[in-house]
Amino acid sequence: MVSRPASDEDVYLRNDVQIAAKILVVGHFAVGKTTFIGTMSEIPPLRTEETMTQAAAHVDDLHGVRGKTTTTVAMDFGRLTLSDRLVLYLFGTPGQQRFVQVWEDMTRGALGALVLVDPERLKESFDVIDLVEQYGLPYAISVNHFDGTPVRPEEELREALDLLPETPVVTCDARDEKSSANALITLVRYLQDRAR
């Protein structure tokens, strides 16, 4: 028997599951979306990162960002099999305002969004949350704690982000598989509860 080479579709898609769920991983510039998808994906993630240039220095605000040298220019993509019946396809959106037009296409067919938030740059999350709400996506907030970031009480975060009482709020470290998985599980459970 002659085996055929694996196509990109074979690597990224699974045809043997009953439920395929499209989940967006969103957030402002440099909040950890690419890292999160890379941590959670069971396949090599598809990334569209480019090296940041001096030309972007006046456009992309690096205040409060350490060691960032690349940025997503289209999307990130990963896959996570939760069971024989359910696979999550994770789509990471670019965080800069100039890429907002990409959102409309990416929201089509999405069941919900995990909004990553930097606790030291909460104001930058407002536009992202507004977009998620504008497209009618249910969402959960995941506060991405980097080294040394302060832990804020949940009520303080809820008030600062003006969240509804039912909106789930969890913490994670996008580099850590266990805490990132917990954030995704929180979103999936919230989506399931809404569907009942």
TrEMBL record:
A Pfam family recorded for this sequence: ATP_bind_1
Keywords: GTP-binding, Hydrolase, Nucleotide-binding
Transmembrane segments: none
GO molecular function, one term: hydrolase activity
The family this protein is said to belong to: Belongs to the GPN-loop GTPase family.
PANTHER family in alphabetical order: ATP/GTP-BINDING PROTEIN-RELATED (PTHR42708), GLIDING MOTILITY PROTEIN MGLA (PTHR42708:SF1)
Name under which the protein is recorded: ATP/GTP-binding protein
Species annotation: Streptomyces sparsogenes DSM 40356
